[in-house]
Amino acid sequence: MATLFERLEGAPVDGALTYDIPAHSFLFEPLRATCSDEDRSTGLAALTIGTLQLHVGAASGRVYFVDGYHEVRSRWSSAVVRPPEPRPGVVRVRGGDELLSGVGYTLAPGGVWRTSVDEVSGWVQVADPSAAPAQDVVLVATGTVLGLAEGRLLALWLRPSTWDERADHPVDGRRRRAEPGGVLASFLRRRRRDKPEAGDRASWPASSGRGGPVIDDDVSVRGGRCTERVVR
Fold first, then answer.
1. Global pTM?
2. Residue 55: pLDDT above 80?
3. pLDDT exceeds cutoff 50 at 27
4. Distance from C-alpha of 79 to C-alpha of 82, rounded to nearest angstrom
5. Mean pLDDT of 199-205
6. Cβ(92)–Cβ(62) under 8 Å?
7. Which end of the chain is more exposed for a tag (fewer CB within 10 A), N or C?
């Protein structure tokens, strides 16, 4: 699927981005009604980078937020990856094909883009290693920055407000929440001590590699609905 990304004026989506360590997933919860009326009617599609998902209005093409499974692995490199000063705005996707609600469209297969993490600030960068630096850096949602150049998406920067992990002795499945820094650094140290087994590979779903629409059992597009929950 041919896609062009363009920046428009507008306000970022207000919400909470977290990383669920046991589930190896980024989670995003909008704080208020977010989708336009037309997207409420038609639902959401997803553009996928591995198993990360950019949730896009099927009618408007607006990128609302990013979430999805993205396992912390020893291959995550440690670096200073804070994004250039982003400008708040809206990013819209345009392409020759109609976006279908509930369908995932592959932007990049799993393992192609490189993940780097800043253990001090908590920023995680997922970027095309062969691409030039982004020319336009847009804050599209809380803790979510997209890097664009000449109509292409080149990088994502994600900064969870918290990294959730189960307590040492969990009670009723409750989790403790900690700010980025301490819990992130200690968790990465534990992961790096684990020696990968022979044949170890990233836990990504298979991709068609053709850039066309793919539906994968490991990628849930939330049923194609404009899912919102008010956090009080």
1. 0.75
2. yes
3. yes
4. 9
5. 33
6. yes
7. C
Contacts of 66 (CB under 8 A, 6+ apart): 26, 28, 52, 53, 54, 55, 141, 144, 156, 158
Q: What is the largest CA-CA distance in the chain?
A: 52
Show the tokens assigned to 38: 């037309």
Distance, in Å, from the CA atom of 185 to the CA atom of 120, rounded to the nearest integer, reads: 8
DSSP secondary structure string for all residues of 103-168: -EEEEE-TTTSEEEE-TTT--EEEE-TTSPPPSEEEEEETTEEEEEETTEEEEEEE--SEEEEE-S
More confident residue, 8 or 193: 8
Give the whole-angstrom CA distance, residue 140 versus residue 6.
12
> Nearest 5°: phi and psi at 193?
-75, -20
Residue 128: closest CA among 143, 144, 148, 142: 148
Measured CA to CA, the distance from residue 78 to residue 75 in angstroms comes to 9
According to the model, what pLDDT value does residue 21 have?
A: 87
Query: Do residues 112 and 73 lie in contact, with contact meaning Cβ atoms separated by under 8 Å?
Result: no
> What average pLDDT does range 12-38 have in this prediction?
90
Cβ pair 162, 18 in contact under 8 A: yes
Distance, in Å, from the CA atom of 190 to the CA atom of 180, rounded to the nearest integer, reads 16
